[in-house]
Amino acid sequence: MRRTRATVVVALTCATLAACSGPGPSSPTPEPAPERSATGGTGAPPPSGSTGATTQSGSPSPRPSATASDDGTPAPRDAAAGWSVERKVGQLLVAGTPADSATVSDATRTAIEDHQVGNVFLHGRSEAGVDATRSLVASMTDLAPGDAPPMLVATDQEGGSVQVLRGPGFSELPAATEQAGWEPAALEEAATGWAAELADAGVNLNLAPVMDLVPADNQQANAPIGYFSRNYGNTAQSVVRSATAFSAGMQASGVEPVIKHFPGLGHVTQNTDTTEHVTDDTVTAGSASVEVFAEGIDAGARFVMLSNAVYTRIDPENPATFSPAVVDLLRDDLGFDGVVMTDDVSAAAAVEGLAPAERAVEAVAAGADLVLASADPTVVPAMAEALVARAEQDPAFAGQVDEAVARVLASKAELP
After folding, report:
1. Does residue 169 register a pLDDT over 70?
2. Cα 94 to the chain's mean position, in Å?
3. Residues 76, 413: contact at Cβ < 8 Å?
4. Cα distance between residue 144 and residue 199, in whole Å
5. Which of 46, 160, 326, 363 has the fewest C-beta atoms lying within 10 Å of its C-beta?
6. What's the predicted TM-score (pTM) here?
7. Angle at CA 182, nearest 5°, toward 286 and 414?
8. What are the tens digits of pLDDT across the range 126-147?
9. Is the dihedral of CA 232, 348, 336, 208 positive or negative?
């Protein structure tokens, strides 16, 4: 049963952590900055010095429905009626291409043309600017058939060391730890401008903001998040206040944010991109790390990204990406009815125990709707073929594919 918002607020208040007072007791060996990153904004307003407000100024947007239709338009569920399994599976995959390329990579072209992949991700780092990025995006979206749904065009635009797109027309985003010091209204206004730049370049999905709750004493030891200043402070209130303001600004300019990495990477010390078997022995279904995501969902988040870590007190057997228990927590306890996507499962060390084809099948079987193959799109054909084969052999899995496609198409129906 969905816990009430009042319960969430009480839990956040009771579990709020002490403000960051300095580096943690140990520092990890510096790792390369994560590929996922954020676009910037040179015109960002300066911090006001006050962080007292607790909500963003905008109103949350209604979440799309997988079954409702407007003015006689076919509902997303009906929109896939008559589709081949191959076409349905294509809507569940996200293929990466280098952000600094002049045109689509060969691997991503193959994914779109031969496997009907309907979503793309700009990875790496680019200094080329808005016009060049728009041209790159067009080289991918123009490959889709005329009757195809719009593509989700994603990148990571968080701020600080995690910013994929720079150059003329893109602003510089400060790190999340700095954004957390701004008034929510100022942050929302800045994010609205940053999102307008993304939209101008053809990007409609930002894999941000980070909602991982990092304890102050784990800030520097937290290799994936705290070490790179990707977190919005060290308290539940700070994370909710700033991340929801950032999200509202993104949505105001027609870019959907993706809150991540559920159920939270704040307590780990290793990076799932570079380390196998990253494990969290702290987070439970009722932890503040989970409750901050409940607040993000209540504020209107339509996309949630899963972590690649294992949470022993929720599901000791599977990384969250492959865990039905984690997805059930998100769907049933938090009431999330939007799109669940994986973190990168094409090259992340934490999922190397499975072949890429198995990763895609296990993620969808667990309840994920989008499978992200951002770093190495050459694995997409194997993923697509495995998903098709499993759907053709297993009616229950085919039903899961249909449900996932319905949610993805519902999200696309809400794009500007």
Report:
1. yes
2. 12
3. yes
4. 19
5. 46
6. 0.85
7. 65
8. 999 999 999 999 999 999 999 9
9. positive
Nearest to 38 by CA among 201, 230, 212, 292: 230
The CA distances from residue 282 to 227, 230, 315, 316, in Å, are 19, 20, 12, 12
Nearest in space to 259 (alpha carbons), one of 297, 286, 204: 297
pLDDT band at 79 (very low <50, low <70, confident <90, very high): confident
Distance CA 29, CA 380 (A): 32
Torsion, Cα of 270, 271, 277, 282 (10° steps): 60
> Within 10 Å of residue 73's Cβ, how many Cβ atoms?
11
Tokens, residue 333: 């306890």
In a domain, 409, yes or no: yes
The answer to whether residue 65 is domain-embedded is: no
Distance CA 151, CA 144 (A): 8
Q: What is the rounded average pLDDT of the residues 329-333?
A: 98
| Domain extent at residue 154 | 86-413
Report percent pLDDT > 70 for the chain: 81
Nearest to 212 by CA among 414, 13, 17: 17
Query: Is residue 26 in some structural domain?
Result: no
The confidence score (pLDDT) of residue 78 equals: 74
Domain total in the chain: 1
Residue that the structure tokens 């990890």 belong to: 28
Structure tokens at 76: 């997303």
Range from 10-24, 162-176, 178-192 carrying the lowest mean pLDDT: 10-24
The three-state secondary structure class of 310 is strand
Does the pLDDT value for residue 31 go beyond 50?
Answer: no
| Tokens found for residue 60 | 């949350």
The residue type of 262 is F
Least confident range from 35-44, 298-307, 358-367: namely: 35-44
Say if 93 falls within a structural domain.
yes
Q: Averaged over 57-77, what is the pLDDT?
A: 45
CATH number, position 285: 3.20.20.300
With beta carbons less than 8 A apart as the criterion, state whether 80 and 369 touch: no
